[in-house]
Hints:
Elements: H1 8-14, E1 18-19, E2 22-23, H2 38-46, E3 74-77, E4 83-87, E5 90-94, E6 128-131, H3 141-147, E7 154-157, H4 161-164, E8 174-177, E9 182-186, E10 189-194, E11 213-218, E12 221-225, H5 234-242, E13 247-251, H6 266-275, E14 281-284, H7 298-310, E15 322-324
Amino acid sequence: MQRKLPSIKERIQQSQNFRNGSFQNLSVTPMKPEDVTYFTMLRKVLKRPADVRPPGPMPTVRTDLKALYSEKPVVTWFGHSSYLIHVKGFNILVDPVFSGSASPMSFMVKAFPGADAYTPADMPEIDLMIITHNHYDHLDKKTLAQLKPHTKRIYTSLGVGYDLQRCVATGNNVTEMDWWETREIAKDITLTATPARHFSGRGIKRGGSLWSSFVLEIFGYKIFIGGDSGYDTHFKAIGDKFGPFDLVILECGQYNDYWPFIHMNPEETVQAAIDLQARALLPVHWGKFVLAMHAWNDSPKRVTTAGAQRGLLVTTPRIGEPVTVGAHYPQEHWWE
Length: 336
């Protein structure tokens, strides 16, 4: 008799990363330093300086994604943490948020003018969608519902399937992964879920689903999909196991000293890329939404400076401007 596969609920309960009723990071990860109160954080958030937003519309490049074809991986960034990876006719869409908002209330956390230049209608047929975790700036139900007819399958972190139930069909086309699990997507394409240092939740309760980074091995190339993460030793562990990487895509925005363990500052982003043995770094998680208090262009300024000091190639495309792995890395300082 064929053995019955465990349910998602059973897999969550059996996960080594699920303890005391919620998923846990590899290292102890406070949401804030001990000497900082939530009241202080709220007061600072409500008094953000004007330069958290750009002075004018975000510059964009118009690319016909449906006509795109390349033998080398091409990555097209759509602002914040949404991007398309294309190679040899295979399309992978990561954390698409095209509704114009990264909040359960559409009038909050609005996209910068110009940053929402791309919509679901611009996307090609999606062979694989990756959702790293369930935060609103990474899992946008309105966008997913619009992309549903054009998405063949979704891979995500363990437990996130619950959040996908109302916007996409669950079942055979949704695969939930625990850290260090590997799935063969197609011939010469594998995906491995790897650790991140973050948290999950779409309301009061946190930790009900996992948050992940992913290692994409595709047609001989290795790309690291970072999701959201604070800096920790897991980057070196992943680099030692899978590196070197042709390209690492890492968060580089929405950081603050009030939450130093769950998001990286730009200098830590560069160190993480070095830990991963990256040949090139594409910094994301900036350029579309305000979720912190730093200037809108603080991220690219600091990460390019730190990258130059450490001898790391940092590519900084405009929204919609293709990056071709091993061939074309836009590096213009267009934000200045």
